[in-house]
Sequence to fold (353 residues):
Amino acid sequence: MTTAVILYNLGGPDRPEDVRPFLFNLFNDPMIIGAPGPVRWALAQLISRRRAPIAREIYANIGGGSPLLANTCAQAEALEATLNEDGGEEYVCHVAMRYWHPFVDETMDAVIESQPDRIVLLPLYPQFSTTTVGSVMRVWNMAAARRNLDIPVTALCCYPTDPGFIQSVAGLIADGIGRLSGTRPFRVAFSAHGLPKKIVAAGDPYQWQVEQTSAAVVAALDPAIADGLDWLCCYQSRVGPLEWIGPSTEDEITRAGADGVDLVVVPIAFVSEHSETLVELDIEYRELADAAGIENYVRVPTVGTAPAFIDGLARLVRGNVAAGCEICSGDPGAEGGRVCPSEWSNCPLSAAA
Fold:
């Protein structure tokens, strides 16, 4: 038996000339802008044209393009090696991106050509949102329908408290705290990409899951660190006029400066380095921290190919194959595989609950 595992992520422009079409693809997604098709197309054209020069400057700080594809391919390679260690069933890992190459359609064609016995869809978003996992599942289902895909497909929707993920983040935080100098008090800020409040109010479980991840990481820290730890969740990358969930990471950096504490920033919703970690957190927010008077600003790396994280993904894939379910949260102890409380109606397991 051969299982094709598709690791998917946001995607990013490879070169400066890719920035505007990448942004157009992002803002033309109905899961991002819910306007009718022609209106959304026009808005996406306008927004991408206006934001492209700013975005090109951002990517210029990291070589002109996003490292996300290379980082995701490294994760796929590490996961494939781990899945095939026992010499049993064969696993082949593929990469798909939502807004840039390789698109879902491209990857699906390659997978169909390889004729696997089954397909597992694995998000590189630990927390579920309709704007991320939900968006990819939408285009996957549309592409599968166009091709009359007859290969069995199962999917994971999230793994916000997977032990491998949590252990990896906790270890990186401990290392980050060890880099602090002096005896000043410090605060740990778990920073995640934000969402408009209206999306969460409509039942999207993302913010709740981010908070669960952060709490699980704190619980996994050495008691010498965790006891009395000053920590919080905050949200970055706000765009547009809508009201977003908070507190914002920028505001928390300013508050840390006013409180006279050092700051350890943890990218809790990202598993790969890309513009929002390498530029926003490392450059823009570091400048803000300096201006706020923070003496020590430490940014914790993403989990990348950390062995515990990759081992956790391998367990999730094997568990998904064994369960044979359409959507599996990765928590076999949860009723029906669901981890979200019932009020989060946009959890993909709601229909099965």
About this structure: The domain at 163-299 is CATH 3.40.50.1400 (Rossmann fold). The longest helix spans residues 37-60. The mean pLDDT is 93.
